[in-house]
Specification:
Helix content is 42%, strand content 19%. By secondary structure, it is an alpha+beta fold. α3 (126-137) packs antiparallel against α4 (145-165) and α8 crosses α10 (258-269). The radius of gyration is 20 Å and the shape is globular. This is AraC family transcriptional regulator.
């Protein structure tokens, strides 16, 4: 079975990059085991995230959660410049109290069914100024410059969440995305641990299963069966890392028997659910 590739590696709580590419190879569907924020600066880029498609404008903010299956297409007629941040779940948890939660921007994006935030009036926005400060910090070579960039990133995250809480950002609608496919994606996400046979989903949406499978593949680039299996395995990995026993994870994630679960898990992650490396 075709699987989506994990890309990007995070060896610390977060990593910060400022990248400009004159030519970018097309990046196929993949996922990360950490959260990712992209601040788009310039270029011609289309992002496809969980079946939703976005044409970016300068200083759009792209939020990709851990496990989100996504790809991007870049028009190489002009340079592609962006700031990318990889963020571990531990980093987000460290900045969570009764009074604030820096992961709120991701939670609100889920509620709004949009991965891309746009600043309506940049010239009046403290968030835009914090992006500019973060951008300029990459050219700062003074004392403790790396720490300074980290401080600028935290400032950006604070302004981002303030703007989200005060509804000062636009959540961008998807471009040319089929509403039925979006409904199927939402349904799968809400019932991931339950029976999700193709026949059952087709009956729920009152459509032919063959039409549904063809439409899903056409709109998202992957089959419905692949998508369900991948999302279940990513959930399984998260549960296992939190200490849930493998047998319980198997059934909690919708697999009917442990051998099927273990085989699929090893194929995707290269280790058994118990953590043993595959030969």
């Amino acid at each position: 079975m075709e699987q989506y590739e994990k890309k990007g590696y995070l060896n610390s709580e977060f990593r910060l990059f400022h990248l400009t590419d004159q030519e970018t190879k097309e990046i196929d569907y993949h996922y990360h085991d950490f959260d990712k924020i992209t601040i788009f600066i310039r270029g011609k880029v289309n992002y496809m995230i969980e079946g939703r498609s976005y044409d970016l404008k300068p200083y759009d903010i792209v939020l990709v959660k851990q496990g989100d299956i996504h790809k991007l297409t870049v028009d190489n007629s002009c340079p592609y410049e962006r700031i990318i941040v990889y963020i571990s779940p531990n980093f987000m948890n460290a900045y969570q109290t009764e009074n604030y939660d820096l992961s709120y921007c991701f939670q609100k994006a889920d509620q709004e069914h949009s991965n891309v935030l746009r600043i309506p009036s940049p010239e009046k926005s403290s968030l835009f100024r914090s992006i500019s400060n973060l951008e300029h910090s990459f050219t700062d070579g003074g004392y403790a410059s790396e720490l300074y960039r980290q401080v600028m990133f935290l400032e950006f995250m604070i302004h981002l969440n303030r703007a989200v809480r005060k509804n000062r950002l636009e959540y961008i609608d998807t471009d040319n995305c089929n509403e039925k496919v979006l409904a199927i994606l939402d349904y799968v996400g809400e019932h991931l641990c339950e029976n999700l046979s193709i026949d059952l989903i087709a009956r729920h949406f009152y459509i032919s299963k063959y039409y549904m499978m063809r439409l899903f593949k056409q709109e998202t680039g992957y089959t419905l069966g692949q998508y369900i299996s991948q999302k279940r395995l990513l959930l399984a990995k998260e549960l296992l890392s939190s200490g849930v026993p493998g047998t319980q994870v198997c059934y909690d994630c919708g697999f009917k028997d442990y051998s099927t679960f273990s085989r699929a898990y090893k194929q995707l992650f290269g280790v058994t659910p118990s953590g043993r490396t595959c030969p």
